[in-house]
Amino acid sequence: MSHSATAATSVTLAGDAAVVTSGLQVTRGRTPVLRGLDFSIPAGRITGLLGPSASGKTTLMRAIVGVQRFSSGTVQVLGLPAGHPALRHRVGYVTQSPSVYPDLTVEANVRYFGAMHRKGRADAAEAIAAVGLEPQARQKTGDLSGGQLSRVSLACALVAHPKLLVLDEPTVGLDPVLRADLWDRFRSMAQAGTTLLVSSHVMEEASHCESLLLLREGRLLAQMTPQELSRRGHSTDLEKAFLHIIRDAEATPDGGAESSGTAPSDTGPVPESGPPLPGRPTPESTVRS
Ligand SMILES: Nc1ncnc2c1ncn2[C@@H]1O[C@H](COP(=O)(O)OP(=O)(O)OP(=O)(O)O)[C@@H](O)[C@H]1O
Q: Which residues contact 266 (CB under 8 A, 6 or more apart)?
């Protein structure tokens, strides 16, 4: 067993797992993107999904929320296959590109998405306050800054009170104060029982998470706590620690992957795929290969 494989088992799962993948393989175009992932995400915690650009973070998130075909393996979300219709009101997904209607006000956008989940005015107001956009509530979304737009998108997901919230780089473009506020918000959501999966390029943000999935080239290098990352990577600087782990993995014969599989063929079976998420006005809301 490789060093990283030992680390991969070292996060203790308390209670139920919100997400469980087994042998997950995804090919996009002709490129094998996820190469056999086996892991669990603990319920009611913040799990960070970290890895270099193009390591497969977005693809993995898409598979979890049910908008990504996979070539083989399984993904269980809150006890159901990813993309199951019963998950529509229970899983929230915020993509990297804000998916909101620019001609509507912030409030109208959030109320629109809230209505799809049978949520009303008070829920919308709460979600807008949670992302610090009360002063902009009556402004047209198209007139907002990039960081504000991202927060509208987040509010549109928060309004549904999802049990699992999947966030693709939610803090990009936010100033340090807003970033800290958002992490506080994520922490209190987790304390209230929400499971959060948050991707980031910024290793410093790993310290806000209770569990980390470290991806590289479509393989799971390790699943560990930030403290373990620091210890195993021999640095309190998590970026340096991650680099150390990557180099360590490169030095092992199997690349240090927690699990790996044969790259699937383009024409391979598609045992499971899910329906689009409802109501997201974005091309992300289609199941694609
Ligand atoms: N629609 C697509 N068709 C073909 N290949 C794709 C498609 N989308 C993504 N890929 C490839 O899949 C790989 C993983 O992409 P993905 O977006 O999942 O990575 P990521 O870790 O989220 O990257 P980043 O941090 O830069 O957003 C990349 O090599 C990318 O080029």
A: 27, 30
Q: What single-letter amino acid sits at 148?
A: Q
Contact 131, 182 (CB under 8 A): yes
Burial group, residue 112, by CB count within 10 angstroms (0-12, 13-18, 19+): middle
pLDDT, position 239: 87
Largest CA distance in the chain: 57
pLDDT tens-digit series, residues 239-279: 899 889 888 887 876 655 554 333 333 333 333 333 333 33
Domains, the chain, ranges and CATH? 3-90+162-283 (3.40.50.300)
Residue 28 beta carbon below 6 angstroms from any ligand 1 atom? yes
Q: Does ligand 1 have an atom closer than 6 angstroms to the CB of 14?
A: no
Q: Is 260 in the pocket of ligand 1 (CB under 6 A)?
A: no
CB of residue 214 inside a 6 A radius of ligand 1 = no
Strands 72-77 and 80-81, bridge-based pairing: antiparallel
Q: Provide the ipTM.
A: 0.97
* 196 pLDDT more than 90: yes
Tens of pLDDT along 179-193?
Answer: 888 899 899 999 999
Task: Find the angle CA(252)-CA(203)-CA(215) to the nearest 5 degrees.
Answer: 40
54 lines ligand 1 (CB under 6 A): yes
Six-digit token pair at 128?
């807008």
**Full-model pTM:** 0.83
Residue owning the nearest CA to atom 2 of ligand 1: 28
Of 13-22, 28-37, 197-206, the poorest mean pLDDT is in 13-22
Give Cβ neighbours of residue 56 (< 8 Å, ≥ 6 apart). 26, 33, 34, 215, 217, 218
91 C-alpha vs ligand 1 centroid, how far in Å? 22
